[in-house]
Amino acid sequence: xxxxxxxxxxxxxxxxxxxxxxxxxxxxxxxxxxxxxxxxxxxxxxxxxxxxxxxxxxxxxxxxxxxxxxxxxxxxxxxxxxxxxxxxxxxxxxxxxxxxxxxxxxxxxxxxxxxxxxxxxxxxxxxxxxxxxxxxxxxxxxxxxxxxxxxxxxxxxxxxxxxxxxxxxxxxxxxxxxxxxxxxxxxxxxxxxxxxxxxxxxxxxxxxxxxxxxxxxx
Length: 218
Ligand code: ATP
Hints:
Blueprint: E1 6-11, H1 18-31, E2 35-40, H2 54-65, E3 71-73, H3 76-79, H4 86-97, E4 103-108, H5 109-113, H6 124-127, E5 129-133, H7 147-156, H8 163-166, E6 172-175, H9 184-192, H10 203-211
Parallel strand pairs: 1-2, 1-4, 2-3, 4-5, 5-6
This protein binds adenosine-5'-triphosphate.
């Protein structure tokens, strides 16, 4: 029996917003995924400390994704005591899910452009496929990527997403999603300035933010 590819979506989610949710929803449809496993980062190695605790970011991802049976949340990076490296998470998931399950790491175009700075980044390709979504302001083109990543992109890119089902790892695909120029940075700024962030993220998440008095400081 062939398993449908499983999407893996990591991020800081500080906080989760509709850009993230549409990316995962549209990835399921465009890439033929069996589901998406959300993996909030514990201590993200690539950026400054998030403003709220990892447990609070995990809780917000939990309440935003709860209504979707194709979404699940993986708390392992939040519960870990060491920094979160994607390569370690993929190695753990390979041990858990076996060698043949196609895994698809979902990343926005901005995150993909920085891939060559990730810990053991070349090993990612032996562990999972990578699907890059378009994001406003971040073109997905070879010319916009650092040389070594542009080479991998050119060698591994598949135009037909059926390639994701044909093997467990190693391809790169891109997909166009509804373009939403929403970022967590913008939401944090609005909240710190006591301005409305409504309709940029789910009401349940906004209620959680208000109940716990999060993002009050710039
Ligand atoms: P921040 O503004 O704090 O940097 P962010 O909104 O970019 O946060 P992250 O948690 O850093 O959110 O992103 C997780 C993943 O979601 C990344 O791969 C990122 O490229 C992608 N992403 C975030 N927002 C969007 C969006 N509006 N459209 C498409 N992809 C997005």
